[in-house]
Structure formats: C-alpha cells, structure tokens
C-alpha cells in the first residue's frame, strides 16, 4: 500500500502530539513501589508535624504511582536548623526526600549563624500554607499587668527566635509592655498546657483552632496580631477583625526606619509559615512532579476542609514559586537590620536557640 507524503506527515504529527500529551510530570516520574521520606522540622504532634503528615496522606494519592510515605522528626531545641542542614548536606537530591518546615529556617538571624550550614535560597519549595499571621494572647487576669510596673507578664516560647517573638520584643521596647520570657518549651502543645496551668501568661500561635478553643474555654484575652501583608501595611485576619494589628500600634510611636527594618527582618519570614521543599539540585522532572501533586492536593476539597479545621480558617495557599520569591526577598535584609534585632534580643535576655 502506498501513502502520500501528506498522509505520512499527518500520521507523524498525530504520533508526536500523542507523545507530547504523555510527557508530563506523571509520565516523566513514576514513584510506584518507592518510599518517599518527609523530614519534619518539629516535634511529633506539633503544628508543623500535623500539617506535614496531613499533606503526606494526600501526597501519596497524587504523586504518580502512589508511593509509600515515611516521616522523620527533628525535635525542638535546634531541630529546625538540623533538619535544614540535613536536607542541604545529607539528603540525596533524587526526588525521594522532602522537608516540611516553617518560617524559622528562613529567619536571617538564624541563617547567618555558624551552626546553619544551608542557604534557604538553594532549596526548591513545592508549596506551603500561611495561616494568616500569629495572634498574641494572655491569660485572663494578667493583661492589666502588661503596662504596669511590678510582676511581669511571662511569655512562653519554643525558642527566642520564633518570628512572632518580634511583637513581644518590640512591644516591650516601644509600647512599654512589662514582660519576661521563658523559652525552651518543646512545642505549641506544651505551651498551651503551661498557659492553662498558669505556668506562663502569654504566648502566640497562628492556629485559629487552638486560639478559638482557648477563647471558648474562657482562658484568654487577645492582645494583638501580626496581620497579613508586609512592611508597615499589615491588615487584620478575617477571623479576628477587632484585634489590634501590631504594626498599627507601632506606627503611633514614630519608630526610626532602622527599628522598622529590624522588626521586618524578624517578622518577615513568617509570610512563608508552613512550607514544603525539596533538596537543592533536585532534578526538574521531580520538581515538576511534586509541584503538580501539590496543586492537585490543594485542589482537593477534602484536604482543604481538613487543613482549615486543623490549621486555620484563614489559610492561604502559596505556590513553590511564591515561597521562593519571599525567601529571596527576606534574605536580602541588611546586616544593620539584623544587628538591631539581635541587640534588642540581648537587651531583654531572649535566647536565640
């Protein structure tokens, strides 16, 4: 049988089109029968851990071939930096390891410490979740001490370098808040327990679920919120429209620009909140597969319902590209701004562990 030249070209065109349809992340990478390790920069049971494991359940479903997920926690007390170091220096960039972490690993004052052996700009984010900013709250009956001399309000924290701690430090320095800090708690769950027992008076979280539970039980009063946005333009979360936005409180005090820069060098990384990333130099085919899976997971109505229930009703989904852009911007802060925030931290004896 003879074919015309044009018939042959048409057949080849159809074959090429069919091949191009199949060459995507799903066809390029298949994880069937494989095991994917998620490194979690948190104690088991903490907010970062819960988000990571929830995402992992759905990642199994949407990665091509439905791989098996395993989890490895790096506990508090330097665990976040150790997890980032592990991903940067030890994890193979073969598409079978990713990290669930939070804003702490992009905090400039942490990144520029000697113990940090990673550059967050070299990580390859696949996506993340912003809860809408942290809210500071205090046990009922303690808020009147906030602006009076005498017994200080005790602030509990996991470490002295958490992004929300910038609000307490700037609150003491510029708003006259009477505070003392006790860092070193293992996670948000232990902080919540300490608050209920009266061991500490004040803490913060971005989790609306945790905040609303404490409000319902009549345990706390809301003091201020980080807000959503950047620079001096933060706005209130939809769930807490009546809670003062902290930068608005600072604006009334006419802070010098260096003080603003120092504040933003500390609070700025919180915009990435909870996020997932692959190691540096992970091949593009794997990156495409994970980012496609992230998009599918975050389009799953059941996942979104669980995410908002466990994390925050105000959750904003961020793509890997958006997170990478925030990281690049945050790492560009000046040494003077970082030095300013460190000076205040030392002034009030707040650990940067």
Short description:
By secondary structure, the chain is α/β, with parallel strands linked by helices. The chain is 42% helix and 16% strand. The chain has 2 domains: 158 residues, D-Maltodextrin-Binding Protein, domain 2 (3-Layer(aba) Sandwich), CATH 3.40.190.150; 148 residues, D-Maltodextrin-Binding Protein, domain 2 (3-Layer(aba) Sandwich), CATH 3.40.190.
**Percent helix among the residues?**
40-55%
What separation lies between the terminal Cα atoms? 78 Å
The main sheet orders its strands as: 2-1-3-10-4-11
Give the number of DSSP strands: 11
Low-confidence stretches at least 5 residues in length (pLDDT < 50)? Answer: 1-27
Q: Approximately what portion of the residues adopt beta-strand conformation?
A: 15-25%
In the CATH hierarchy, what is the class of the largest domain? Alpha Beta
């Amino acid at each position: 049988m003879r074919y015309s030249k044009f018939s042959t070209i048409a057949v080849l065109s159809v074959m090429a089109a069919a091949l191009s349809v199949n060459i995507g992340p799903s066809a390029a990478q298949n994880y069937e029968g494989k095991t994917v390790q998620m490194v979690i920069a948190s104690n088991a049971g903490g907010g970062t851990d819960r988000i990571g494991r929830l995402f992992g359940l759905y990642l199994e479903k949407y990665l091509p071939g439905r791989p098996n997920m395993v989890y490895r926690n790096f506990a508090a007390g330097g665990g976040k930096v150790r997890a980032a170091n592990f991903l940067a220096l030890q994890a193979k960039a073969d598409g079978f390891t990713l990290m669930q972490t939070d804003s702490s690993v992009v905090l400039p004052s942490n990144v520029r410490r000697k113990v940090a052996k990673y550059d967050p700009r070299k990580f390859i984010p696949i996506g993340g979740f912003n809860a809408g900013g942290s809210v500071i709250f205090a046990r009922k009956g303690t808020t009147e001490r906030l602006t009076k001399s005498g017994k200080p309000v005790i602030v509990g924290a996991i470490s002295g370098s958490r992004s929300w701690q910038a609000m307490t430090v700037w609150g003491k320095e510029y708003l006259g808040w009477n505070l003392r800090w006790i860092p070193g708690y293992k996670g948000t769950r232990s902080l919540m327990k300490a608050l209920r027992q009266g061991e500490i008076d004040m803490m913060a979280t971005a989790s609306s679920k945790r905040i609303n539970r404490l409000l319902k039980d009549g345990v706390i009063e809301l003091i201020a919120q980080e807000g959503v946005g950047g620079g001096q333009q933060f706005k209130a979360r939809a769930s807490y429209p009546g809670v003062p936005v902290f930068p608005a409180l600072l604006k009334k005090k006419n802070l010098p620009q260096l003080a603003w820069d120092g504040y933003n060098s500390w609070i700025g990384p919180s915009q990435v909140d909870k996020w997932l990333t692959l190691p540096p130099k992970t091949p593009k085919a794997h990156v495409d597969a994970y980012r496609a899976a992230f998009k599918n997971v975050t389009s799953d109505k059941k996942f979104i319902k669980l995410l908002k229930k466990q994390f925050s009703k105000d959750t904003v989904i961020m793509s890997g590209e958006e997170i990478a852009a925030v990281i690049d911007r945050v790492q560009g802060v000046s040494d003077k701004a970082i030095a300013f925030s460190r000076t205040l931290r030392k002034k009030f004896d707040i650990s940067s562990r």
